[in-house]
Amino acid sequence: MQELQPVLNLIDSNFKHSCDTLFELLRFASVGTDPSYNAECAKAASWLVDYLKGFGIQASQHETTGRPVVIGKSQQLAGKPHVLFYGHYDVQPAEPFDLWTSPPFEPEKRKGERGQDAFFARGAADDKGQLLTFLEASKAWIKTHGELPFNLTVLLEGDEEGDTSHLDRFLAKNRELFEADIVFICDTEMWDNKTPAITTALRGCIAEEIEIQGPRIDLHSGYYGGPAVNPIKVLAKLLANLHDKNGRITIPGFYEGVKPVSAARKIQWQKLKFNKNEFLGAVGLKHPSGEKGYTLLEQLWARPTAEVNGIYGGYRGAGAKTVLPSTATAKLTFRLVEGQNPKKIHAAFRKYMKAQLPSNCKIRFVDQGGDSSGISVSENSKWVKAARVALEAEWNKAAALTGSGGSIPVVQSFREHLGLDCLMIGFARQDDAVHSPNEKYDVESYHKGMRSWARLINEIANGDHK
Amino acid sequence: MQELQPVLNLIDSNFKHSCDTLFELLRFASVGTDPSYNAECAKAASWLVDYLKGFGIQASQHETTGRPVVIGKSQQLAGKPHVLFYGHYDVQPAEPFDLWTSPPFEPEKRKGERGQDAFFARGAADDKGQLLTFLEASKAWIKTHGELPFNLTVLLEGDEEGDTSHLDRFLAKNRELFEADIVFICDTEMWDNKTPAITTALRGCIAEEIEIQGPRIDLHSGYYGGPAVNPIKVLAKLLANLHDKNGRITIPGFYEGVKPVSAARKIQWQKLKFNKNEFLGAVGLKHPSGEKGYTLLEQLWARPTAEVNGIYGGYRGAGAKTVLPSTATAKLTFRLVEGQNPKKIHAAFRKYMKAQLPSNCKIRFVDQGGDSSGISVSENSKWVKAARVALEAEWNKAAALTGSGGSIPVVQSFREHLGLDCLMIGFARQDDAVHSPNEKYDVESYHKGMRSWARLINEIANGDHK
């Protein structure tokens, strides 16, 4: 039997060395959005190959249409479950440099604002510290027991902060490299500083642009105002009609396939005791403005939306101009939940807009691409069950099963090209300043993160999850 | 008795000289929108002073905050009616020069597109040719009879095409110079090539900008979409609610003071047999989109409107951006008709917007200035009666009593500062290319225009209009 305790002991006794390892990786300025950092990305990828090889993972770099990916494989034994671990070695740009207390690519351990110990560097939380929690735990397990209780494939990419289509294309073309039962991702947050979290719901997204044309040319609002149709007014009407008075979207068929929030999930989310006043107050709002009959978290994690992200038409300079414009344009995104079909939503939206269009107007649609479906992982999957046991044991607090209102493109790619669900566990904090100056990762996140993964590996080895 | 026929005879026999006079005035490049043409404007004003003196009008230049005005006065005799004639010597810029068949400030007489004779030059129709129709008629009358049957004040300005506030200020400060019973203006169009027109209704205008603020900062549409209010959607709803399903404006009190179109006016406008298919077809529209229950001309000339002239908010670049914007802005103008009070409409609009505002939002209003009231001149005024007789006699066709959907600032200034109505008669044609390259004025407009004014002077001298 592969026991947990000696692995935890090794993680603890080796922690200083794990910190050195993190610092080595943080020193690469592997900025993922700017080609002038390509050499640093290549160095980081090369370092990761060596690092994986260091505990028996067969690793190599592979070219993509973007930056190289690092792929590593443990020894593959029949009959074992197969885990694909995903992380990214690229980081956000560090500008403006002068807002950093210590240089972004010279990691430093110091106190954070809550008095806690933390590692400060660009990428400390997103995603270098996080990805190492899993890899260091796996390394400790292998050093202790010789092998993992599952076949492991590691995929570390360099285009997460930039053009995510590179990895999407690579996955679509190299499906055979990634056969697995589940994807583990360590790139999300804890619910709060004491409560670990598993993200089990993500919204998808589709984007449309619509342009209404009325008159062939801009007109004088005096000489034509009244009889001539005004495309801004038509557009306003179409947008206003997208929701009923309860905030429900009126597009026929829009809610087709949307399941009610499960009782289990409702209870989970109620237990989170989410502070909606703090959440909304931080951005100057007083109360939720979404669909009536749903809590704020349900509106955010479990209900689809229709948002107007931009609008323009006619005169936009200083003062007044008595123009009656020829066209008016709006950019929309729809956040989707599990069960909704992006293609059908595009079609239903267009049909609905056309049905309401005055006969004096034309309408033009532009599908903005990047469709993704809403994703929901059952609380009852064996992976989630195992993770809950592991996280509660480490943190002495039940893991929050959270959703996210946003979309994570790679999760969509795994589902679409590989048919795989993702188990999303992360130890980042809300104050980690991800994408901002003075990004940091708490020492506790790093240490207990490793221990959490070790406990999850133990559940796979010795637990009884079905 | 001052007889008409010798005056008409003089106009006819002197027509060649009248043409030379027009050409002299057209040669000044008195562009009213560009300070580099100020010297040409001064020359035109100076020429006009001499021209007026040439037939016994005491004339001089007066400084304004803009270009000089020319003021002329005939001998003023007690007991006579008093007419103020208004015209403008400034013209639109002539660019692009290469689209002109003959240079814009070298007038040329040649055939127009309908085979008719015409004078081609910038300002030929707007307003040099038109203003001379009245002045040449007055000159012929004075040369024949020694004096006019009314006291005449002439006001010729140089800021009509530019900043109209200069003349407005000058009128407000110099009311005593312009005591009169009526203003004659020759700066409008004929109804069609065979039908003279008197403009008896103008719409006024007020302008407002509104900005809706939702969240304090731009938000991510995934992480906040649903619970967070979207100011673009709020703005769209407010704008959509401005009209009911019949196209009637829903602002409480908006129609206060608006009188129904008089039966006489309805009959007048029906008789015009306005070709609405041609009017709308020219700008790519099929049918009137205005207030139900009104003809196109009523919608345009006699009914107020609420138009959105511009709108903007959120992301307006290429592609999609999942932003939930902090603000959204719209620019509106309201065309007003006689009886509506601009100040009250501003207040009613703002009150209505505030009443509908969701509590999570703020609203900011900017009054864009330039308020003007709707104006309507009775068909039964003695001046209109006299003009109808005169025009029908000259053109062998009853004059059309038309409205205009637009606003003419100077008409508003005369009403506001001097309490005067305007009699608007003009002989321009729809194909005169006013403000465009190859502007022209038909020789027939110039000649019969003078004869029309002579006939109107005769009606004042000898008619029995009350």
Describe the structure.
The first copy, chain A, is an alpha+beta fold and 466 residues long. Chain A folds into 2 domains: 287 residues, Zn peptidases (Aminopeptidase, 3-Layer(aba) Sandwich); 119 residues, Alpha-Beta Plaits (2-Layer Sandwich). In chain A, 34% of the residues lie in helices and 21% in strands. Chain A contains 13 helices and 18 strands. In chain A, strands 1, 2, 3, 6, 7, 8, 15, 16 and 17 form a 9-stranded mixed beta sheet that branches. Chain A has a 4-stranded antiparallel beta sheet with strand order 11-13-9-14, covered by helices on one side. Chain A has a 3-stranded antiparallel beta sheet with strand order 4-5-18. In chain A, a hairpin with a 6-residue loop joins strand 1 and strand 2. In chain A, helix 1 packs antiparallel against helix 13. Chains A and B meet through strand 9, strand 10, helix 6, helix 8 and helix 9 of A and strand 9, strand 10, helix 6, helix 9 and strand 11 of B. Strand 11 of chain A pairs antiparallel with strand 11 of chain B, so a sheet runs across the interface.
Kindly summarize this structure in a few lines.
The structure is a homodimer of 466-residue chains. Chain A has 466 residues and is an alpha+beta fold.
